[in-house]
Write a structure and sequence with these properties.
Elements lengths: L10 E2 L9 H7 L9 H18 L6 E3 L3 H12 L5 E6 L2 H11 L4 E6 L8 H10 L3 E7 L1 E2 L4 E2 L2 H11 L2 E5 L18 E4 L12 E5 L1 H8 L31 H17 L1 H21 L16 E5 L6 H12 L1 E2 L1 E2 L8 E5 L7 H17 L6 H14 L2
Parallel strand pairs: 1-12, 3-4, 3-5, 5-8, 8-9
Antiparallel strand pairs: 2-10, 6-7, 9-10, 11-14, 13-14
Helix pairs in contact: 1-8, 2-8, 5-6, 9-11, 9-12, 10-11, 11-12
Length: about 400
């Protein structure tokens, strides 16, 4: 028998990749230029310059040509030397995962780990670093997306800077959706990408690298060269008079250019506000239906992803499938340790519009009746709309 034909969702409210802005789709359809053409080389420099403006950093960013996992692994491979002790801060699946990369390169990886519905306490980091003055690098996931939780990157960054260590920050699903930048959190390497809050396509990593991190990588004899994991190879690739180490992702650069224009033209603070308004409305609606948020306290709940605990007696995969089947809306599951325990609604880029929160609440509640649990959908939607009106 032939398999039933699957249709595209009517709406994608996932935690990424997300739907792209119309301007980005138009950008992706631009002609594919030859990478050694002078016009493209100048275009590339201009796009990196826009990224520097958006990231509010002094240094020209590095663009690596692969989705942000490439940037994160490259940061581990390039910055961590064989004699280094790394403190990995794990408050979720992605924070924990970075420790596995770090262990491939470091002399020792030590860890502060909290439950995956909680956040890292800067005071705990400070106390740990006093006990372990040999820590050279600290790694932090700012928004641990599989939990929908936010870590206090600025405060932790200040602690790490006082200690004299270098901080690697995973801001893949937070940059562009809230006020977080490399210099804000004293990041040595700050990794993000265009396929989340910037509303572009997956395929690029955007890195801000501090002068201290450049120095550390250049003094690391094991830092990759002539490799997909090399950050050093791309240090000066932004310059229009320098060759690329290998062929850059031309279409994705076109999309990034358009996404940065959207971000800078609308205004970062305006965009952050609509992400926050959307998430607040979603949380209000979810709780009004009697459902629980996954984060242990709302103060650490992300403005770019709402994580909802799966009610007792409900199978998460069935709930998510009912949302997709009956309403044509795609949402996200958990990952690894959070898989089956929560469901996630993304508020990123073009779907960070408050009315989408009401849609999300309606389909979350409506789908529950298809899996044997009844909630007051009307109360949820009303609470979401009240929140939208209150924050206008």
């Amino acid at each position: 028998m032939s398999k039933p034909k699957l249709t595209w969702p009517v709406m994608t409210l996932t935690s990424g990749p997300v739907d792209a802005y119309p301007a980005v789709l138009r950008g992706l359809s631009r002609p594919i230029a030859y990478d050694f053409d002078p016009a493209f080389q100048q275009f590339y420099e201009d796009v990196v310059g826009k990224a520097r403006t958006a990231m509010r950093t002094k240094e020209m960013p590095v663009i690596l040509h692969g989705e942000p996992v490439l940037g994160l692994e490259a940061a581990a491979a390039s910055l961590i030397a064989k004699g280094d002790v790394v403190l990995n801060l794990a408050s979720g699946v992605y924070g924990k995962g970075f420790g596995y990369w770090a262990a491939q390169y470091a002399k020792e990886v030590v860890e502060i780990e909290v439950p995956y519905n909680d956040a890292i306490d800067p005071a705990a980091v400070e106390a740990f670093l006093r006990k372990r003055p040999d820590v050279k690098i600290v790694s932090l996931c700012h928004h641990d997306t599989p939990s929908g939780t936010i870590n206090p990157a600025r405060e932790i960054g200040a602690v790490v800077a006082r200690h004299g260590a270098l901080l690697i920050v995973d801001a893949v699903s937070s940059f562009g959706g809230m006020g977080i930048h490399p210099d804000d959190c004293h990041a040595g390497i700050f990794v993000t990408g265009p396929n989340k809050c910037l509303g572009s396509a997956p395929g690029l990593s955007m890195l801000s690298v501090s002068s201290g991190a450049w120095e550390k990588m250049k003094s690391n004899p094991d830092a990759p060269r002539a490799s997909m994991l090399s950050i050093l190879d791309w240090e000066n690739a932004w310059r229009h008079d320098q060759p690329f180490p290998f062929t850059p992702s031309v279409a994705e650069m076109n999309g990034l250019d358009a996404a940065l224009d959207v971000y800078l033209d609308e205004g970062p603070e305006v965009i952050w506000k609509r992400h926050d308004r959307t998430a607040r409305a979603c949380r209000a609606g979810v709780q009004a239906m009697g459902l629980d948020l996954w984060p242990v306290r709302e103060a650490i709940a992300s403005p770019t992803t709402t994580a909802i605990a799966v009610p007792a007696g409900v199978v998460e995969a069935d709930w998510r499938a009912a949302i997709r089947t009956h309403y044509g809306v795609a949402v996200s599951s958990g990952r690894s340790e959070t898989l089956g325990k929560l469901i996630r609604v993304g508020h990123m880029g073009p779907t960070a519009q408050p009315i989408y929160a009401a849609v999300a609440v309606a389909v979350l509640g409506g789908a529950l009746k298809h899996v044997g649990k009844t909630v007051d959908v009307g109360a949820g939607v009303a609470a979401a709309m009240e929140s939208i009106d209150a924050t206008a």
